[in-house]
Amino acid sequence: MPERITLYTAKLCPFAHRVEIALKESGLQYDRCEVDFFNKPDWYIQKVNPAGKVPAIAYGGPEVSTGLEYPSPESTKLFESLILVEFINDLISPPESAQDTAILPKDPVLRAKARFFIEAVCSKLVSAFFNVHIRGQHPSSILSAVETLQELLPKDGGFVLGEDRWSMADVAPLTVLARAEVGMVNDLGAYDEGEGRKAWDRLMSDEKFERFRKWFADAKAKKSFQETFDAEFVLDNFKSMYPAMRAKRLAEKVGA
Ligand SMILES: N[C@@H](CCC(=O)N[C@@H](CS)C(=O)NCC(=O)O)C(=O)O
């Protein structure tokens, strides 16, 4: 009997989304608990993640009758999206197994390549996404990050690790870029009005980004992504968050 898995997640969160895709790819059974990370409930901090962040996984322990909000005290609580993705991969393909998965292959060189790509995602794309959307940096920062990542894609097509070798290296940027698309297409972010839409249009039309566009379309077509991304939910939330952030930034600029 496999151990119980409860994923504490949020539809808005690109990090939690990575773990949900990995769980879908794994075929493992899991319970899903949506957490409002803007208004963290006490039970979440007390019983799941003292840092208050999503994603988290409660692993193992007996079922408890009080519901998902109260994980078994005997379950192990695990955190950090990329660590959780590798944990899920270890569950379906333990170290002694020779089996590749749709999360990470067994070949050490390919694993190193995947982790190298993810390092660039974390240092370039994730920071650009938050700097642009929350802090109002010019959206061209996202295009610069995409350019760096594009350089690391195989030139003749396919996913990060080549051909149809879909892996966590593709998932790591995809969940961020899917949210950047919703934000920028609708010009929702703390940046100056019109700049998000303009930058996204450039990303989707400039010849320079052709390789990226092919990868992005292939990645968005994956079933595990489509089953786990609620674009409408993200849009509704962005509509209620970002106009106020833009107004605040402009007011601070005027007052400075
Ligand atoms: N490095 C973490 C980042 C997780 C994270 O920042 N999650 C956000 C939601 S997207 C959160 O829970 N924020 C609440 C907080 O920071 O208090 C990961 O990859 O899991």
Protein model, in words:
This protein is α+β, with helices and mostly antiparallel strands and 256 residues long. The chain folds into two domains: 5-92, Glutaredoxin; 108-255, Glutathione S-transferase Yfyf (Class Pi), Chain A, domain 2. It has helices spanning 14-26, 42-47, 81-92, 108-133, 140-152, 168-185, 195-205, 210-220, 223-226, 231-255; strands at 5-9, 31-34, 56-59, 76-79. Strands 2-1-3-4 form a four-stranded mixed sheet, with helices on one face. Helix 6 crosses helix 10. The protein starts with a strand and ends with a helix.
Which key phrases capture this entry?
4 strands; Glutathione S-transferase Yfyf (Class Pi), Chain A, domain 2; alpha+beta; single chain; 10 helices; 2 domains; 256 residues; binds glutathione; Glutaredoxin
What is the fold's blueprint, element by element?
Elements: E1 5-9, H1 14-26, E2 31-34, H2 42-47, E3 56-59, E4 76-79, H3 81-92, H4 108-133, H5 140-152, H6 168-185, H7 195-205, H8 210-220, H9 223-226, H10 231-255
Parallel strand pairs: 1-2
Antiparallel strand pairs: 1-3, 3-4
The chain binds glutathione.
DSSP summary: helix tally: 10
Beta-strand residue fraction: 5-15%
- What best-fitting shape do the alpha-carbon axes yield? flat
What is the fold named in CATH at topology level of the largest domain? Glutathione S-transferase Yfyf (Class Pi), Chain A, domain 2
Distance between the termini: 61 Å
